[in-house]
Amino acid sequence: MSDLPGHFEIPESLSGERIDRALSLLTGRSRSDTAKMVAQGCVLVDGQIARAGSVRVAAGSTVEVTDMQLPAAVPEQRREIAPFDVLHADGEIVVVDKPSGVVTHPGSGHSAGTLADALVEQYPDMAGVGQPGRPGIVHRLDRGTSGVLVCARSSRAYDALVEQLTMRQVRRTYAALARGHPSSPTGTIDAPIGRDRENRTLMAVTSEGRDARTHYSVVETYVHPAEASLLRCRLETGRTHQIRVHLASIGLPLLGDLTYGVPDPFGIGRPLLHAVRLTFRHPDTGADMSFEAPMPEDFVEALARFGTDPSAFPTE
Q1: Is 142 a catalytic residue?
Q2: What's the CA gap between 5 and 204, in Å, rounded?
Q3: pLDDT tens by residue, 90-129
Q4: Angle at the Cα of 231 (from 81 to 191), degrees rounded to 5?
């Protein structure tokens, strides 16, 4: 038997979630375990006992789990993840090039084999930094998204980077290969994003969502072997699945995105979205820092089908 008391703050990415699911994602416990916690009155949200697992939580809410006994979690066999490049490391931060297919941090259905797990093995000081269950993770990339990601090695660095993100001072640039042609060479998609009303595991443009803005410009358009566009996208906000949802909402779903897009004609197996450049201020020195992640092999191969040299992509 093992205890699981603790205090947790609901991050923006879990705003609107059921308390039992949010707690499962934060702690790595099974949904049935967290449902038992709620049923036994052991979960408080902002000081009030959560009366049902269906209670929705808001970003910034404080969740307290009081003492209770649950069967010890069964250790999951360690899973290796794809090799990844460290673009920069110092005493405060680590900047990596995340491969596609790798989950950024533990969550429901992914309690091991994540990028966060691998980073903690390499940099043990990250273990207690940031949100519970998400050591050192300041922002995330979807499992299918590749590219540059910054992580914190100290609580001071974590707080400083989160503040930069909150103040929208971090510049995040992506390469996206989308089906279709935009109506103009540049544009801004200003549409709120929230949980899909019919499927809470998906995101959607909805009036009940949080403000979200994506800026895009056309790098190149194609008619063969399919109508498609190579886009440079810049996030002003950072909602879950933001670029994927925004582009799909204007009729430009990402190639390979089976969740928000269309059948995958080329067998890509993942949304063709790559975080190509990240610019921020160093949390200790205040120096401006920019890092670029080269396009991975699958993205290069996809562009080759359209006759494009990836080295010509304008990252800024």
Answers
A1: yes
A2: 34
A3: 999 999 999 999 999 876 555 567 899 899 889 888 887 8
A4: 90
Domains of the chain: 2-70 (3.10.290.10), 85-312 (3.30.2350.10)
- Tokens representing 128? 């207690």
Question: What percent of the chain is modeled with pLDDT above 90?
Answer: 58
213-239 pLDDT, tens digit each = 999 999 999 999 999 999 999 999 999
For residue 78, the 8-state DSSP code is P
Residues paired with 89 in a beta bridge? 94
Active-site residue, from 33, 142, 257, 298: 142
Tokens (6 digits) for 77:
């066999």
3-state secondary structure of 133: coil
Q: How far apart are CA 272 and CA 126, in angstroms?
A: 30
C-beta neighbour count of 307 within 10 angstroms:
10
**Residue 109 confidence (pLDDT):** 57
